[in-house]
Specification:
The structure is a single chain. This protein has one domain: Porin, CATH 2.40.160.20. The chain has 193 residues and is mainly β. It contains 1 helix and 11 strands; from the N terminus they run αβββββββββββ.
């Protein structure tokens, strides 16, 4: 009986190992594209309703990984900012940012990574707004990366919340901050054997 249990365990282990996901440990390039759902906080606010906007994000990255950690420097183009709706005007704060994002990830289990992503951004085109604006922004993002398996193993899904820490207003009496939810599809350019 004891031998049968060991044999059953061994056969189960071998069959599960044969269907496991291929783990790509070598560094590789990747492309990302997705949607930002962004809003801006504005203070003091007495007349504007703050609304969300949806914008695209595009990027390229190079990913290094070990058994439990991943480092992924990426360059990203994204549009962030919300809409201010007043009684007589609508102001769309469309910040067209170029960003450098050094992502650090902890691999919780194969296929699921928790990521922390500081963002150093520069507004390529400063939007017309209700306050004078600065062009640079520091943000911190955190979220999850889901690596698909089997037939879709080259693709991943990335979900991040990005919290802006830089007051984008140059006025001393007003503040303007960006808040963004990023949802992106990633195409990993793995080197196949």
């Amino acid at each position: 009986m004891y031998l049968k249990s060991k044999l059953l365990f061994l056969l189960t282990f071998i069959s599960l190992s044969a269907t496991a996901q291929t783990v790509y440990m070598k560094p590789h390039l990747g492309l990302r594209a997705g949607l930002n759902v962004a809003t801006s906080t504005y203070s003091p606010n007495f007349i504007y309703n703050l609304k969300r906007q949806s914008h695209p994000n595009l990027g390229v990255f190079y990913r290094f990984r070990t058994q439990k950690w991943a480092f992924q420097p990426e360059v990203q183009l994204s549009v962030r900012g919300g809409t201010f709706k007043g009684e007589l005007e609508v102001v769309r704060n469309n910040f067209n940012f170029a960003s450098f994002v050094p992502v650090v990830g902890y691999i919780i289990t194969e296929g699921l990574t928790f990521e922390v992503a500081p963002e150093f951004s520069y507004a390529l085109i400063a939007p017309k707004s209700i306050v004078p604006l600065r062009r640079n922004e520091f943000s911190l993002g955190s979220g999850f990366r889901f690596d698909f398996m089997d037939m879709a193993e080259d693709f991943s899904l990335n979900i991040r919340y990005v919290h802006g820490f830089t007051n984008l207003s140059t006025s001393k009496t007003e503040s303007l901050y960006n808040r963004t939810l990023q949802v992106s599809v990633i195409y990993n350019l793995y080197k196949k054997k």
